[in-house]
Amino acid sequence: MAALPLFIFSLLVSTTIAIENLQNTQVIDVEERMTFRALPRQLTTHKQFYFHVYFHEIFYGPNNTTVTSARPNSDFPNFGEISIFDVPLWDSQDANKLIARAQGASIQSDQKTIAWHLSFNIVFELPELKGSTLMVMGRALQLTTPRQYAIVGGTGVFTLAQGTIYGRMLSSTDESLWIELKIFGEYYTSVENPKW
Q1: pTM for this structure?
Q2: Which of 1, 91, 135, 170 has the most CB atoms in a 10 Å sphere around its CB?
């Protein structure tokens, strides 16, 4: 019987503490709690861009730009092969000025023909664009031209980028590959930086 008064006393104490805690709670501003907010269109400015660059892939040697990371056994040649690449994009075939680097992966994803799924970032090296990227996806049929890839996003200067990359093969050997790329797109630059 002595346990019952003790239980009632502890229940009253815990209830009193809970009520005091509720009375001392802080009100959080509604703006801070929002996870989504529609922004007016005038907070961004719309711009277009164009680049003309040369993709130079090297397959062998000390300066190779591409490494095969998976080569499964398959009835169809190269099906399932995965390659990782970090390829320079030059201003010309003379490789005078480095504009950017194409960094990503290619996957041989077709069982009937040699066709590669490409997913990569164009990481800019120009001082005025340093740290900005374009995200690219597409399909490349081996030894065909022209090629076309989709720009599906961007960061830095190229926030919310979208566009198309057109490519034509200039030369292909067992050691290397040259592709001319014309990059067309548009992006939105935020007028306001986020308030952290």
Answers
A1: 0.71
A2: 135
